[in-house]
Specification:
alpha+beta, 5 helices
Length: 164
């Protein structure tokens, strides 16, 4: 399988996939959100990853990192997360942030540490997801995580075989 950039025609399939794995659905078609999907041989979405950059490009909000339940525990989530981190760093982001109430051990394994959600909200105030969470009150229920990024971070995948 290879990752492909999510196109407007893919948003409905991605929305269905993210709904099934209980991740945020809003803003998937926002112009500032960068998303990639992975499909199986039948064309069904089996994985996703992405991020949204702050207005100044220094911060990335990692989002929509998910793997189908039947494909978990094979390292795909780690590969998808590393892909998003590497791409965000390549675009110039120096810090990655995310919201996760359930997957702390996974994100810790990738170098994330708990962060102040107000710091996240300040750094990424202009992103779709932070604006949504702030306006709905969900921000106060979220757990924030962060880590530094470095250009040239490996995403764990060779350059060949990607449709980006």
């Amino acid at each position: 399988m290879s990752l492909e950039r999510c196109r407007p025609t893919d948003v409905d399939a991605l929305t269905d996939f993210l709904a099934a794995v209980d991740l945020t659905l809003s803003g998937l078609d926002a112009p500032t959100v960068r998303l990639w999907i992975e499909r199986d041989a039948t064309g069904t979405v089996t994985g996703s990853t992405g991020y949204e950059l702050s207005g100044d490009g220094r911060h990335a909000l990692i989002r929509s990192v998910a793997v189908s339940p039947h494909a978990r525990s094979r390292g795909r989530g780690t590969g998808l997360a590393r892909f998003a981190l590497a791409r965000a760093a390549d675009e110039g982001a120096s810090r990655a942030w995310l919201f996760s109430r359930r997957s702390g051990p996974f994100w810790r394994s990738l170098g994330f540490v708990p962060a102040d959600r107000d710091d996240l909200a300040a750094a990424l105030a202009d992103t779709h997801q932070v604006r949504l969470f702030s306006s709905t009150g969900q921000l106060n229920r979220e757990v924030a995580w962060s880590r530094a990024l470095a250009r040239g971070e490996s995403d764990g995948r060779p350059d060949h075989g990607r449709n980006l």
